[in-house]
Specification:
Layout: H1 5-74, H2 80-103, H3 113-139, H4 156-170, H5 189-197, H6 200-203, E1 214-222, E2 232-235, E3 240-249, E4 255-265, E5 273-281, E6 286-290, E7 294-295, E8 301-309, E9 320-327
Parallel strand pairs: 2-9
Antiparallel strand pairs: 1-3, 3-6, 3-7, 4-5, 4-8, 8-9
Helix pairs in contact: 1-2, 1-5, 2-3, 3-4, 4-5
Length: about 325
């Protein structure tokens, strides 16, 4: 039975609609496939970039761990200045870890791997800082100091071991994600060594033992004394004199030093004078005290005593100086 013209038009319309719908579906499917492929490509790129940066940080931590082991094992053979320099070099590396860890938090990746490595690294920085500070305190070294942020860990070596074991489980999180990246493991040799022996070998080392020593390096007087015998300060007829006393700390240890200046006249109207000064000297450093001006009178005779305390006298130096002070009569210059 022949179809009418209206039926043929409807049939053509249905075919057209079906073709349009099919075309739209195909285009949509293609866009979805492209979008999914693009998302996978982006994720693969992000995962690989993260892995490169994370492994670089872990490599720094493992190298630090190796250097720390060497210092704990061989540090007893070093001198105090050399050991302190090595300890300070290690301490300076830790601040870079914190910066690198914070940069790894973005972009966000699967399994919260970003926050896990960042939080773990910040914890390890605190742990290592406390271990280095413990070593420095045990040997009375000036550096380094622990971070002032938060409460220091009570058992930093144990904490290092725990965070390393956690990370060595988390590091496989992206193995089956796009990019199939491999994240490196953390080593904890120094933490285990510190847990086993602590600082015993270091504190028992003769080369790392504290040897204190101070001394008076030089004394200056203004106005300049006239030529006289040793131990005599022959001064022009002035009314004021100024003393400068240079002291030296010969030990590689922070040292408190107190200077006492006494002036005891044997004639004239002026009373005895006593001045006291204190300073904290860094290792192997010197300091120049400038005493307050001392009132004098022409023709005065006095005994000037300079004395420093705080540590034994260093070889070749003395902790005290004694001078006879003689001022010329008026008009004698």
């Amino acid at each position: 039975m022949a179809r009418t013209r209206a039926q043929r038009r409807r049939h053509s319309l249905f075919l057209t609609i079906a073709l349009v719908v099919t075309l739209v579906v195909l285009i949509f499917a293609r866009d979805v496939a492209r979008s999914a492929h693009g998302a996978i490509t982006n994720q693969r790129s992000e995962n690989r970039s993260f892995a490169a940066l994370a492994n670089a940080l872990i490599g720094q931590e493992n190298n630090f761990d190796l250097r720390m082991v060497r210092l704990l094992q061989s540090g007893a053979t070093l001198s105090r200045p050399v050991f302190d320099a090595r300890l300070n070099q290690l301490d300076q590396q830790l601040s870079y870890w914190s910066t690198s860890a914070e940069l790894l938090r973005r972009p966000k990746l699967a399994h919260d791997i970003n926050d896990k490595i960042a939080d773990m690294t910040l914890t390890r920085v605190d742990d290592y800082e406390e271990i280095l500070a413990t070593i420095a305190r045990s040997l009375e070294l000036p550096t380094p100091s622990p971070s002032a942020n938060g409460t220091p860990p009570s058992d930093p070596a144990q904490s290092l071991d725990v965070t390393a074991r956690k990370w060595n489980r988390h590091r496989f999180a992206l193995r089956h994600d796009p990019g199939a990246v491999r994240l490196d493991a953390l080593s904890v040799s120094s933490a285990k060594l510190f847990m086993g022996s602590g600082v015993t070998a270091l504190t028992s080392s003769p080369s790392l033992a504290v040897v204190r020593g101070i001394g008076i390096a030089a004394v200056s007087v203004s106005p300049a004394p006239l030529p006289a015998a040793s131990g005599v300060l022959l001064l022009p007829p002035v009314l004021l004199i100024t003393l400068g006393v240079s002291i030296v700390n010969t030990g590689f240890v922070e040292q408190g030093v107190t200077l006492e200046v006494t002036m005891s006249p044997s004639n004239g109207p002026l009373p005895a004078l006593r001045q006291t000064f204190h300073v904290e000297l860094a290792p192997l450093q010197s300091y120049a005290f400038t005493a307050q001006e001392i009132a004098v009178v022409p023709s005065e005779r006095a005994i000037l005593n300079l004395r420093i305390t705080g540590a034994p006298a260093s070889a070749g130096l003395t902790r005290s100086k004694r001078y006879q002070v003689k001022l010329s009569p008026p008009g004698h210059l």
